[in-house]
Amino acid sequence: MDDSRFFSMKQLWQSLAITVVLGGVLLGGITYGVHSMGTQAAPREATATTSPETTALPAAAVTAAPKDPFEGLNLSGQAAIVVDLSNGQTLYSQNADARLPLASLTKLITFFEAQRVLSPQSLVTMSSTSLAQDGDYGFVQGETFTYQDLAKLALTNSSNDAAEAIAEAAAQATGQTIPAYMATAINAAGLSHTSATNSTGLDLSLTEAGAYGSARDVAKLAQEFLAAAPVISEATTHSAVTIYSTAGVAHSLSNTNPDVSSLTGLLLSKTGYTDLAGGNLAVIFDAGINHPVAVVVLGSTHDARFTDVEKLMHATLASFKEDKSH
């Protein structure tokens, strides 16, 4: 074979080999570049820890809002209120301005005015009219007591004849009829949603009560009476009261609130019950040192009025404890 041709053929094969190699390298580089560009263009998946600013706080660092102790209370009463008497703040209210029958809470009106008219030692005589009131409390016509003693018994046991006898004595001292006397008392106490026809709160008929008022008014009235008559109010915190007539005859009656002995810090208690009113209860208790709180429930049942008030008292104490912890 001609050497020149052999050399040319050799050069041709070498050129082809170099071309193939260079082509492979070039192609590989292009492929690598395309692959690398595709990888770099893909977005990075966001994670919860990409930035300190977006990191969630640990569960322990999140402080839950305190639960309202009054929230979700299941009361039987149609109306209720809790008032912090140290600052006038309403802590809880439910239909607090609705006018409802007051039943024997009316006696707080009667004795609030009597406290302004009679002295503690003023004499009150049991009349035939007073003894004609509903209920037999062991009094006899002509029997005489001091106002303060009879008021203690009348409020503690909710005696209708004793309340009427006191109203008669106080109204006579001011020259008024019983309805006018009660209206004067309501105005003097500053009660805006209250009216009274008689001194006891007894129903006048199947459809008309002897007195109407709101839970808010009753709380205000209880506060006014406690301030005006602390000695009489204190008697209502005992399980029973014994008084003596001017002739020395003893009369002992139990408290119509059976829970007074178990209620801590009680300053005043007054019950009320009639067919129209249902069960009513007003108390003032000391929630701390000189921290009086009024609790009123209207339109409950005979028994549930006591549990309603206890629920509200416990919620009040819990709310004060919650406030101190924050």
Give a structural overview.
This protein has nine helices and twelve strands. By secondary structure, the chain is an alpha+beta fold. It has one domain (79-324): 3-Layer(aba) Sandwich (Beta-lactamase), CATH 3.40.710.10. A five-stranded antiparallel β-sheet has the order 2-1-12-11-10, sandwiched between helices. It has a three-stranded antiparallel β-sheet with strand order 3-7-6. A hairpin with a 5-residue loop joins strand 8 and strand 9 (250-254). Helix 2 packs across helix 5 (160-174) and helix 2 (106-117) runs parallel beside helix 7. The longest helix has 39 residues, at 3-41.
Task: List the keywords.
326 residues, Beta-lactamase, disordered N terminus, 5-stranded antiparallel beta sheet
> What's the CATH H-level homologous superfamily?
DD-peptidase/beta-lactamase superfamily
Mean pLDDT over all positions = 86
Count of helix runs: 9
Q: Structural class, from helix and strand content?
A: alpha+beta
Q: Could you say how many structural domains there are in total?
A: 1
Distance between the termini: 109 Å
Low-confidence stretches: 1-13, 15-55
Global outline: globular
The main β sheet shows up as: 5 strands, antiparallel
Topology:
Elements: H1 3-41, E1 79-84, E2 89-94, E3 100-101, H2 106-117, E4 123-125, H3 128-131, E5 144-146, H4 147-157, H5 160-174, H6 178-189, E6 195-196, E7 211-213, H7 215-228, H8 230-235, E8 240-244, E9 250-254, E10 266-274, E11 278-286, E12 292-300, H9 304-324
Helix pairs in contact: 2-5, 2-6, 2-7, 4-5
